[in-house]
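Hi support team,

I'm opening this ticket because the web form for multi-chain structure prediction keeps timing out on my end. I have pasted the exact lines I submitted so you can reproduce it. The total is 300 residues across two entries, so I didn't expect it to be a heavy job. Is there a limit I'm missing, or should I split the entries? Thanks in advance, R.K.
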Amino acid sequence: MEYHLEDLPVGTKLRSARRVTVTRDRLLAFAEEFDPQPAHLGDEQAAASHFGVLCASGWHTAAISMRLMVETMPVPGGGIGAGIEALNWLRPVLPGDSLGIEVEVLDSRASRSRPDKGIVRFRMTTLNQDEQPVQVLTAHVLVPRRQGDA
Amino acid sequence: MEYHLEDLPVGTKLRSARRVTVTRDRLLAFAEEFDPQPAHLGDEQAAASHFGVLCASGWHTAAISMRLMVETMPVPGGGIGAGIEALNWLRPVLPGDSLGIEVEVLDSRASRSRPDKGIVRFRMTTLNQDEQPVQVLTAHVLVPRRQGDA
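Hello R.K., no limit was hit. The queue was backed up. Here is the completed structure from your submission:
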């Protein structure tokens, strides 16, 4: 199933069908490339950091969450990011954690400037295997309207 | 140089010493792993997408920007993300684009709950090689106070 605006009224809740496990190797490689700070680079450096333990870059968590979003709420032609209004990391993501997402539609309306599109405002919560939230994102995405189909 | 709160008064402006070039191969691999949508997966699929041309996942741009942030405003022990209040992608990032960042401190104050830390609110603008902004992030980061040093 692909989602048009009409499939996403306010209050719609979706949940990812699978979880993504954050392996230690991938966590370290992501940090090496994109976020080389002590908490993300290895056990010894992390032990002396604020978190006290090796944990994933928040941007790694965000990227995994995007992957799950694409699978959970696929949009014809791809969703078009129309602005993020909040992104918060609530808990460290540890090596071996398995992440899933929940999406809730907060607002859903036709676009004034683009009659073939709608704007969906949503909150995506990323949860670990213990159902603890690790990240919350609130954002807008442009999606096609069904009547806009050829 | 590493930055403490006292080094980051309101109005401080920093600029990355280098740019990161987004190669086509890395762009495609990032999208395959984290954001498999038509605009990011290949020329043909992208041609039919909203953007009409292959472009990087916004999360790839965000991750590269984080890398540049770590280099541009290094913080003793690593900065602790304390919430993102806005993240917007303004222009597509194309294969071969070279990204740099500008950081401006918007607010800078001691933490009430943690006397050894301060909170810096900043805006980071990611620019391509033509000095066009491609991303703007506004966020808070916890940084150590100099008087908090042992």
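A quick check on our side: DSSP finds four helices and six strands in chain A. Let us know if the file doesn't open in your viewer.
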